[in-house]
Write a structure and sequence with these properties.
Elements: H1 8-21, H2 32-59, E1 64-65, H3 67-78, H4 85-97, H5 112-116, H6 130-136, H7 138-141, H8 144-149, H9 153-192, H10 213-218, H11 225-230, H12 246-256, E2 260-261, H13 268-274
Antiparallel strand pairs: 1-2
Helix pairs in contact: 1-9, 2-3, 2-4, 2-9, 2-12, 4-6
């Protein structure tokens, strides 16, 4: 049986980052240049790193990037400080395997606060063990880059902080590290919590996933979560023309530039088969 205990290092780290973000209220800490740096880094680490690389490319293999771009965006994902690629991917693959059931690390059935943040540091026996990481991520363990990157996400963050301090002083550190991390944390966590609780459902799934337009706007398209759980393999999450999916737009641009291929999306027939309100044909015989 897998033993579990509170993850105090995660809890203290999350608390420290949130307290660090409050430093923007000190005189001289809020600057417009610092805000611009935070916005750019939030886009690079959140949209390109977590959403495009960690989620749609590595976890679900919804598309294939040219290797230099894949590795670069994986570094961007590491700078989001949500865990190394293998841990992030293993956790999300387990979530899909047991979504909103026993075994889901951040099931909304234990409450919105659990799904949003508490699962990260409270006692949680469903976070992946080293053995489970190997079982769920054999593809990433076969790539030495991802094995080595498991030790680099914290040093990379410290290196970024040093660079920001050299270029813009403490204001850039506070806004480019702490404020930016708080924003990217909560936009990611909202997908786990709000997008399993509020919104509408277009497709039949066995979980509580929903489509939430406001979560989609702040998470670069991840808020179309019912669509995603219906078709986890899909590189496109916003299925309707009005469901804005910024990451899908990125993918289309990269396809034009011949930097991605093997892009997977569900067919119209697949979508209609799972659409809410559409009856499945009765079996004959």
């Amino acid at each position: 049986m897998k033993l579990s205990r509170p993850n105090w290092s995660n809890g203290l780290g999350i608390l420290g980052i949130h307290l660090g973000a409050l430093l923007i209220f000190l005189p001289g800490m809020f600057t417009w240049s610092g805000l611009a740096v935070a916005a750019v880094l939030a886009y690079v680490t959140g949209a390109m790193g977590v959403t495009l690389n960690y989620h749609r490319t590595l976890t679900h293999r919804s598309l294939r990037m040219v290797k230099p771009l894949e590795y670069l965006t994986a570094i961007f994902g590491a700078l989001a400080l949500q865990g190394d690629p293998i841990t992030w991917v293993a956790t999300h693959r387990i979530h899909h395997a047991h979504s909103d059931r026993k075994g889901d690390p951040h099931t909304v059935r234990r409450g919105l606060t659990w799904a949003h943040i508490l699962w990260l540091f409270r006692t949680n026996k469903y976070v992946p063990s080293p053995e489970e990481k190997r079982r769920y991520c054999p593809d990433l363990y076969a790539d030495k880059f991802y094995v080595v990157s498991g030790y680099l996400h914290v040093p990379l963050q410290l290196l970024l902080a040093v660079g920001l301090f050299a270029l813009g002083g403490w204001s850039w550190v506070v806004m480019g590290i702490f404020l930016r991390l708080v924003f990217t944390y909560h936009t990611t966590w909202l997908v786990n919590s709000a997008s399993h609780a509020v919104g509408y459902r277009t497709y039949r799934t066995t979980d509580r996933s929903t489509n939430s337009w406001w979560v989609a706007l702040v998470s670069f398209g991840e808020g179309w979560h019912n669509n995603h759980h219906a078709f986890p393999f899909s590189a496109r999450h916003g299925m309707a023309w009005w469901e804005i999916d910024l990451t899908w737009w990125h993918i289309k641009v990269l396809r034009t530039l011949r930097m991605v291929d093997r892009i997977r999306v569900p067919s119209i027939e697949m979508r209609e088969r799972l659409r809410v309100g559409i009856r499945r044909p009765s079996r004959v015989g």
